[in-house]
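User: Quick sanity check before I run a bigger batch. Here is a single chain. Can you write out its predicted 3D structure?
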Amino acid sequence: MVSSACPFCSLPAERIWFQTDSAIVFLDGFPVSPGHTLIIPKKHIASFMELPDQERQEVWNLAQRVRQLLKEKHNPDGFNFGVNEGTAAGQTVPHAHFHVIPRFNGDVPDPKGGVRWVVPAKAKYW
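Assistant: Done. Predicted structure follows.
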């Protein structure tokens, strides 16, 4: 199932890094760091958690592969892995996608707390 209005359902071939039978891997169009990569299911579905188990597992397996490739290419000091589900969580494209974000020492002044900072006012716990 493909949506003609979805930018992920109509990715130009040159944007695709690699793919499997059920998922596509490509560099984020608005990267927050060098190598910021997205993994999407080929099936147009908004919620990552509503993917069938096998397809969700395929995305996770690809995240492990992408992590290794990015370590070799960019030598990051860490990673953030994440899913934004729903507009309240910041999802802007209603097609499930998984972020693999390489992190580098000094890329932000204080990375302590990681994903807790998606709600900055409540992230101050130390």
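The chain has one domain: 13-122.

User: Great, the batch can go ahead then.
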